[in-house]
Structure formats: structure tokens, C-alpha cells
Specification:
heterodimer; A: 18 helices; B: 8-stranded mixed beta sheet
Chain lengths: 482, 149
Amino acid sequence: MATKILIPTPLRPFTDKKDAVEAEGTTVGELLADLTAKHSGLKAHLYSAEGKLRSFVNIYVNDEDIRYLQKEQTPIKAGDTVSIIPSVAGGAPTAEAPAALPELTRDEIKRYSRHLILPEVGMEGQRRLKAAKVLCIGAGGLGSPVAMYLAAAGVGTIGIVDFDVVDFSNLQRQILHATPDVGRPKLVSAKEKLLAMNPHINVVTHDMALSSENALELFAPYDIIVDGTDNFPTRYLVNDACVLLGKPNAYGSIFRFEGQASVFATKDGPCYRCLYPEPPPPGLVPSCAEGGVLGVLPGVIGCIQATETIKLIIGNGEPLVGRFLIFDALKMKFRELKLQKDPDCPVCGTHPTVTKLIDYEQFCGIHPAAPEPTPSNMTEITSVELKQRLDRGDTLTIVDVREPHEYQINQIHGSLLIPLGDINKRYVELDPSDEIIVQCKVGGRSAKAADFLRSKGFTKVLNLKGGILDWIEKVDPSQPKY
Amino acid sequence: MTKQTLAVDATIDGEIRRHGEETYPHECCGALVGAGNRVTATVALPNTTEEGPRRRFMVRPSDYRVAEQKATELGGDLLGFYHSHPDHPARPSQYDLDHAWPTFAYIIVAVAGNGVPRQSGGAATAGVMTVWYLKEDRSTFEEGELNGN
């Protein structure tokens, strides 16, 4: 019994230019064997060297793809028509194409031997690492362990964006930088350490503040972005830029004793906005500078980010996509939340409303600083003014709204400690007819305390501008800063 | 050995480039319809790859059929396919080679981003365009010559 087989254009040179030929067989497999026996030129194009039908060769019996029937065992009945229909695929070189991967030198083979003997990494995975380009946003708490482990692992190009200089208060956790580096740009210090650790890699430094104007151009040459930022505007900016460019974002964040990690903006995975469509109101979530952070915490979270980055590059394992990891260092517990891609997500959903980078400061409710009113307006007092009034002998009640452990480090002499969290109970200790100066570390928490006191009928409340740090700098340098 | 030539006039050339610029940073794909070695029409097709359109394209069988039908309607033959390489040179990848069909002309156009998001317009510029043919033993591609006349 002969069955008609329709031949697509590109294969017709092998069937004497005919668009249909006949072959015999009771199954698709037999039929194709007979076809390739009669027209031998077809074989190399239909079958791989291992004798399997090539992935882009589609065989239809009448109108059904044999993948959904019984594949090559699909029976052929009298009157059936079999069609060979191409799918056409291709694409630019990627890390997936082994031909495009760089070779390892003898020195590199020696250095990476513990990777090379892991079948999941192996020679190919290590060459992928060498070919990879990863951008770290920030060379601080998270950026330090991320960049160090990626450098040690042999990631060929590590980019770092930062514009800060090393401060003594960084050294408790930012292990890329050491005591002699204080006062040096973090980028200079970082590059030095990474290249000392691994001279085979390329470290690219970007001395700039990340912004909506430069993010897309900056991210473009990189494969993966590692977000180690400490503020919401940059976090949303990094997320949106990653979604718009289709680049994965190995995300991490830390606060006090708790850390979070996930992988956002992969093709089918959720993004940061699927989880948090809107930022929290400004001031609600304090920064690490205000709230503190356990020094080793960014080490734990940064190592998770580095692990995920390496897994994405070698293409092995189960990435932290659609999973949100929460780590509590005090309890030493990890929790995992399932995250789903939100079809209504404003940036990665089916009908995105955010199609280009926006003003993220404004989006997060942070407005550019207004020009400084001089002399200080009715609600604020400067350190120098406060000192003058104290020296004059004015009776002022100074309320320090920081935490007790901060008060132990430094304080304005004679101040009363009422932590912000207690002010709603303890404000009764204060006399509304007194003139009250509220103060914290830099002025954020005390501004909230001042608003609260005014709402309770206090009329003479002034916020110390710049907090105790400003006081120490301008009035009392004998005290330590933190 | 003389190179195979493919005649692509300014209109066709412009259509392919524009398609690549529109879909940037993703790959575009489409069919080439014509007669002999002259392309007379392009058929833009959706990129249905499931491996990330930034580096891959896929014309699924149903769209291949659409392309063949279109060729028949226009009184021509299916001569091959075109696709773009966003931020990559217009040279075939190993992946292109592994997935190539014989006799088809494969046009590749390199498209470079201008560093601005595509929605704001003027996001990308098409550059070098080349054409390639699979060798019959599937060992490699041979570069053809694009002829503007």
C-alpha cells in the first residue's frame, strides 16, 4: 500500500523536485525509512547522526502532529496523507552554543579543578562562567561577597557600579574593603581585591549613580544583573530595566537580622513588582544606616545571590525563580514563599503600563531636597543654633527618640531618651508649654516624633536638623559617630 | 566556487531592516518569497520561540504553512527565511547551523540598540545584512551574495 507524502520546498531537490512522493509502510517510522531509502539525500536532513528525527522536522498524519499521536509508531491507514512540515529556528550566538565559548588556559584549568570535576559544572560550565558578564549594583554589604565569589568562581567579566568612598562604618560587613581603604573610592578598592584574588578575570568599574538615564545602556552588555542596593528607588529602577531588557535580576536585600533573596525578571518568572507593585510610604522602612544590620547577614544573602548567578550561567539546578526566600539570622531559619507572575503587573504583565524607565525618586514619594530655608524655619533648629541657645541659658527639653543602644554610643548632654516606638505612650511625661527639641541620628525619626507631638497639642516643638551626627560634627566632636 | 547570489531590492531590504528594528531587543523572523534567485516579497512571521526571543527565533509549522500559502498566492516560491541578530554580528551561529534546512536562503540582519527603550522609538538600527546557504552535507554554511538590483 503506497502512502502519499507531501515534501516541503527545501527538500524537493532530493525528491527530483516533486512536491509529493509515495512510500510504503504501516507506521510513520516504516514509511520514513522507505522514503529515505528511495531518496537517500533526505536522510541527513530528517534524522540526526543518532538516528532521531530532528527537532525542527514535523511529521503530520493528515492534520495531526505525530508528537501527539504515537510518534514514529503512529499507524498509517489507507488514504492517509503524511506531510513533512518544517519549523524554522535559529538565533544569535549565546552562551548555549559551545562553539562561542572561550577556551580555558592551563593555569585556569588548575585553578578551577574543583569545579571541573563536578559533572554539573565541568569544562563546559566553567567556559560558560568565563564567557559570562555579570553586573553588580553596588560594592557594599551585598556587593562584596557577590563580587568576591563570582571572581573566585571565574566569571569572566564582572562590572561594578558605585560612586561611594569607603567609610569606617562600612567595615563591619563590606568585606571587599579593609581599614587602609577608608577614604578611597569603593570601586578602586574592589577592583584591587578582585584582581588580586583572580587575575584571569576582567573587572569593569562604572563610577556613577545609577539612574533612569543611564541604566539601560549600562545593563545592555551584561547577561545577569545582581541587585545589592539599599533603597527602594534604585530597586524599582533595577527591576524595571531588567524586565525591559529581558535580563535576570539576582535580587537580595537585608535589614537588621533579616534578609531576602529571589531571582526576578526571567522570561516566565515574576518580577519585583509582581510582589510589590507599589513602594512603601517613604520613611516607613528604615535604611540600614538607621535601623542597623548584622554584619554577617549580607554575607549570607550575598552568597545566595552569587550561587543563583552561577546556576543561571551554567544552566543547572533549580533557580530561585518564582520563589522568595526569607532568612532570619536570629532564629536561623529559612522560609520560602511561592511567587507567581502577575498578569496585571505594570511592567512584566500582559498589558504593561510601564514601558520605559520613569522617575523612581518621585515614584517612591521621595522629592528632591528643597533649597534650604535660612534661617531655619519654624519647625527645625540647627546644631549651631541649639548650642547658642543652650549657652545662652534657655530652658529647652531635648528628647532623643533613638533606641537605648544608640543612646549608649553618644548623646546630647541632658537629653531625655524616649524611643520613637514609645512616644505615643510616654509623651505625657512632657509638658506642652515647654520648648521641646526632638532629635535622632540624622533627623528622620525625630521629624515623625515632632509631627506626633504637634498632633497632641504641643506647639513649641523643633526638630534637630541632621540629628546627633550633625551635632557631633559641628558642636561636639569629642563624641564617637556610628 | 562562485557564490550563490540573491537579488534583494531596496524595498525588500528596507522591510527586513525595519522588522528587525521594530522587534529589537528581540529577534524578528519572516519568510522570503520570490522566483529563482530574486526575492519579490517578505512575509513577517511571529517569533514563537520558547527559549527567549532575545537570542532565538522559531517559525512554527502552522506559520510555515501560512508562508507557503502566501508564496502560492503571490505566484512565487518559498526561497528561504530571514531573522535578526540583536546586538550580534550578522553571522550564523552554531544553533542556526544545527537547525538549518537545505536549499533555503537564510538572511541575517545585525541590529544594534541605541541604548534607549524600544517604546520610545528610534531604539535600534539595523546594520550589516548577509545571506547564507547550508552545505548539502550540513557541515557548515556558505555565504552568498546579496545583490541590490
